[in-house]
Design a protein that fits this description.
441 residues; alpha+beta; Transferase, Pyrimidine Nucleoside Phosphorylase, Chain A, domain 3; Pyrimidine Nucleoside Phosphorylase, Chain A, domain 2; Aldehyde Oxidoreductase, domain 3; five-stranded mixed β-sheet; 45% helix; 16% strand; pyrimidine-nucleoside phosphorylase activity; transferase; glycosyltransferase; Pyrmidine_PPas_bac/euk; EC 2.4.2.2
Length: 441
């Protein structure tokens, strides 16, 4: 088998066999195929697309390129959740304890933030001594003992995807549904949970900017998950403005704590209830999403979900005193009010640009080597559809650097579009995609 023949075959719009896909994935991962030939094949795939079987075969080959994590020794039906990335997306820190408090094992290997999107591991590491690197044995034992385990990926999970993504990033071949879906799902499926809920973001702060593109990506990922024998459901959710109010690592942990105590932002809590109720149904803990929702509300109101967060922190060597007293979490030297010079309603608040403001403050990474300021970030006081009077505080900037504050403040003021009330209220959740089709929510 020759790489030249595969490039020509895909260039001419033909279907690659399972053996051919395994060949190029294995040999490129092992360094036997040069970048220039792999780039040519990626461009042929980008232009001529892949069918469902090719996409599933590509996902399978990437999974098999490295280690997988067998979770069969964890009691019960194991569930996982994945978000395609956004701004202020703190759901894992809230959803995980809520689901675990309902006696369903929630197991997740998470990543770090890059650019305007935050990473779950960075947020957790704003808790003093919290350990994100767990052995497989610790990961499994914690899930069995307290129904929740969240850690970093092992170095050898889907090494093919790491190489492929680095090449796609510099060859203008990122925006292809099969390549995106197989990249995301290979990492999810290498961790052998039983059921997955996908939170597919759409809007200014998301990778996918249009509803149609998000639905198509969700369909592709659900087909891969179900084709691989895992129960998979996707929900398309709004990322035109940040989720919740806090953007920044320690700030988002504080917001997660408040939400688990029943005092968090309405949109963030609602999304956790929607995603969580679907996970409880997939785990067969409840028969209907309504039952699941009621159970999740009950564990929040009773304090069980908050207690589960404390258990998670304790079992991963974190300082639980900073959960019990959130003021012990990293705190910025300066908290600056951003005030409105207009009156009206917030019409729009571009999530990506707000994320970039937080990035300026040090809450995110420009590159993987960038150093984070765990205390830095933004807390929104006004969001889309809120009434604003002259002089109202729109947001609070948290920073340890006044020069950075000046830049972020000017940009934030420009991002708040204030005028007449929007004729249609913002929507949080658009669609659900499952093996049975698309449901408008």
């Amino acid at each position: 088998m020759r790489m030249y023949d595969l490039i020509k075959k895909k260039r001419d719009g033909n279907i690659l066999s399972t053996e051919e896909i395994n060949f190029f994935v294995d040999n490129y991962t092992n360094g036997n195929i040069p970048d220039y030939q792999m780039s040519a094949l990626l461009m042929a795939i980008f232009l001529n697309k892949m069918d469902k079987k090719e996409t599933l075969d590509l996902t399978s080959a990437m999974i098999n390129s490295g280690d997988t994590v067998d979770l069969s020794s964890i009691k019960g039906i194991k569930v996982d959740k994945h978000s395609t990335g956004g701004v202020g997306d703190t759901t894992t820190l809230i959803l995980g304890p809520m689901v675990a408090a309902c006696d369903v094992p929630f197991v997740k290997m998470s990543g770090r933030g890059l650019g305007h999107t935050g990473g779950t591991l960075d947020k957790l590491e704003s808790i003093s001594n919290f350990r994100v690197a767990l052995s497989k044995e610790e990961f499994i034992n914690n899930a069995n003992k307290i129904n929740i385990s969240i850690c970093s990926q092992t170095a050898n999970i889907t090494p093919a995807d790491k190489k492929f993504y680095a090449l796609r990033d510099v060859t203008a071949t990122v925006e292809n549904l099969s390549l995106i879906a197989s990249s995301i799902m290979s990492k999810k499926l290498a961790i052998k949970s039983d059921a997955i809920v996908l939170d597919v973001k759409v809007g200014s702060g998301a990778f996918m900017k249009s509803i149609d593109d998000s639905i198509n990506l969700a369909k592709e990922m659900v087909e891969i998950g179900c084709g691989y024998g895992r129960e998979t459901v996707a929900v398309v959710t709004n990322m035109d403005e940040p989720l919740g109010n806090a953007i920044g690592n320690a700030l988002e942990v504080k917001e997660a704590i408040a939400t688990l105590k029943g005092d968090g932002p309405e949109d963030l809590y609602e999304l956790c209830l929607v995603l969580g109720s679907k996970l409880l149904v997939l785990a067969k803990r409840v028969s209907t999403e309504k039952e699941g929702r009621n159970l999740l509300i009950e564990v929040v109101n009773s304090g069980k979900a908050y207690s589960k967060l404390i258990e998670l922190v304790k079992y991963q060597d974190g300082d639980i005193s900073s959960i019990e007293n959130p003021h012990l979490l990293p705190t910025a030297k300066y908290i600056i009010e951003v005030k409105s010079s207009k009156e009206g309603y917030v019409k729009a608040l571009n999530a990506e640009e707000v994320g970039k403001c937080a990035l300026i403050l040090g809450a995110g990474r420009e590159t993987l080597d960038s150093e984070l300021d765990l205390a830095a970030g933004i807390v929104l006081n006004k969001k889309v559809d809120d009434k604003v009077f002259m002089g109202d505080v729109l947001a609070y900037i948290h920073s340890n650097d006044l020069e950075k504050v000046k830049i972020a403040e000017e940009r934030l003021k420009e991002l708040y579009i204030i005028g007449e009330k929007n004729p249609i209220s913002k929507k949080l959740i658009y669609e659900e995609i499952s093996s049975s089709g698309i449901q408008h929510l």
